[in-house]
Amino acid sequence: MENKYKQQPGADPEIDDLFRKGLSGQQTNPPDYVWSRIDKKLLLREILRFNFTNISGKWWIIGAATIVLLGITGYFMFIPGTEPIIKVAVRTETGIALPKPIPSSPAISNAAPSKNQNHKTHLLAPTVKQKYPTNPIANKTNKINHPLLETIAVTTTKPDNDATMNISSQTEIASVELIGKSVPDYTPAGSQVELNLTDASVTPIEHSKTLTPVSLSESKQEKTQSPNSATASPVIPGQDITKSRKKDTYFSAGFSIQPEISINKNNSFYTKANYWGNVDLGFHLNNFSVHTGIGLGLVDDDGHYKLNYQSNDSIGYYVKVISYTYDDTQPGQIFYDTIRVPVFYSVSHIGHNLMKNRYTYLQIPLLLDYKLFETPKFRLFIKGGAAVSFLIGRNEPVPTDYYLNGTVINIENTSAIRKTTNWQLLLSLLLEYKLSKTVGIFAEPTYRYFFDAIRENKNTQVQEPYSLGLGVGLMLNFGHNKYKK
Amino acid sequence: MYREDLILEGCIAGKRNEQGLLYKKFAPTMMGVCLRYSHNREEAEDILQEGFLKVFQNIRTFRKEGSLEGWIKRIMINHALNQFRKNRRNPFLENLEDINETEILDHAELNGSIEPVPEETLISLIQALPQGYRIVFNLYVIEENSHKEIAETLKISENTSKTQLMKARRLLRQKLLKINQMKNTILVHGK
Questions:
Q1: What is the pLDDT of residues A354-393, one digit of tens each?
Q2: Where in chain B is the domain with CATH 1.10.10.10?
């Protein structure tokens, strides 16, 4: 043996055998945190490499509905035409002395300008809900950029900034008559003529009738055929002299805690309490808003374990003789002192254990909400949307400690296994009490509908579980941008 | 408790629970493999972690022609080898500088019988080997690859593989003999 190494230069079977036998089947338990790291990386991969081709039709429908909902919301929020605009139009009733037609406008290129004549101008404004001032013509001069008159200075009124506008139709608000006002007969094309109506006779009209603007070409054609006609001439399309655009945008941040009870209608055993901590970020535009954020949920569940273990149990006893005596007076009889000695043997057991498992979820919601009403102190929102939650942590203690007097052969986890990703529909009502302009407290009852079972165990699977919760928290509103143009 | 084919199906479907079961089933064995190829325990844990991520990433490519354990082990070893390649350009050259040649080539010290030692000692002896020695020794002795296969895998010559193996054996023998001597000394003094 000693010379083995020298006899076989380069080879050393003794060393080879020692290491091969010692290490080929060697097992070492890695620390628990290795799996935790792997688990987190797998979750991250799952999120980053989300495979859209695996999405079922149901999810495509939900996605499409969400996009449509967002689109509709965006339309109402961001299309300028939908903002309240006060329009004032000018209508001529008689042959107004018009400046020379603007060459760029073919429809009026052949217009024959009239001489100084009396003419009447109607100022049109939208219907307003608030009562109009007695004299709607204020001492303000606004300029109308008009394709025919180029520039006309009129005096009209602007409704109160805070008035609630109803843009259902255009209504005449005043009749302005210019008698004998001279307007240059032959103004060079492209030049500007200013008609000052401040000295004109102004007669307020209280919602006399609704006028529909017509095209400029029609107006000119009629005017050419009957220049002195006293009948109502076509209305020139409304021109904006007072444009009020009201937008109220701001951001909000909500911090809340939300106890929740997830209900399993088929098996009350699986009806459990959850606790959520949520941070919500919202962008508000008028009555609508979009919300997202992040939530951390702590969920308790039952862990079921079936343990096969062996313990050294007493299976009976035998009687041991400690001593014996005999009495000469009683021949043939022996008296024994005995004790009972228990007999122990290794016995297999199957135990069922109930443990408390704890799970942590990360939730990302996307919600739309609409402000149902607002008072100086309260606001009520209705919210709806989707949320996805990821299982990011699990603590499932194994009940080995309970069997210290025995040897555990194996442990079978028969718990209902929680899924790692859950999609939900969220609906809630949020009532906010405003402590100040920027700070409020709120209560938010929430209904959460799970699109799929949250556990994978077929015995306890409920396809359509739901939960009810009540969130309470603090709301911060900031970045207000309320303006008028 | 769990059937391997069911676990495999679940892993292919990307189910985390089955991935966890697969890990629980093979992690102890693979940790043993990683310990042999690494310099210390921390390095072994990193190899194990990244190796299992590769397993889950590529589990669809497992053809079920061989054993799942063998396939996972191959991934672990390949990952370990890749790590070594990344960390050092040519571990087989660098190692030569690290070794005290006179220490290895002193044949007189290498005579003596080797007594069995615990697994932990064997692992620590392998981990203490220079990187190139360790890789070749593992591949040849434990994985039972030929020098030709080792040369192809590591892109080195067969002679380099043989030399590395020889030096690894000598170093191990030397250290084992020292351990024996120390053990005997303790026993003598103990008496």
A1: 788 888 999 999 999 999 988 888 999 999 999 999 998 8
A2: 89-191
Residue of A nearest to B29 (CA): A27
Q: Which CATH fold topology does B1-87 show? A: Rna Polymerase Sigma Factor; Chain: A (1.10.1740)
Which of A18, A359, A456 to probe by mutation at the B interface, max B CB count within 10 Å?
A: A18
CB contacts, 8 Å: A416 with chain B = none
Is B122 within 8 Å of A42 when comparing Cβ atoms?
no
- Ranges in chain B annotated CATH 1.10.1740.10: 1-87
CATH code reported for the domain at A62-75+248-302+357-397+410-483: 2.40.160.20
| Residue B87 burial by Cβ neighbours in a 10 Å radius (0-12, 13-18, 19+) | exposed
Question: Does the CB of A37 have a partner CB in chain B at under 8 Å?
Answer: yes
Looking at the whole model, is its pTM more than 0.80? Answer: no
Please tell me whether the interface predicted TM-score (ipTM) of this complex is above 0.90.
no
Query: What's the CATH architecture for B89-191?
Result: Orthogonal Bundle (1.10)
Binned at pLDDT 50, 70 and 90, residue A482 comes out as low
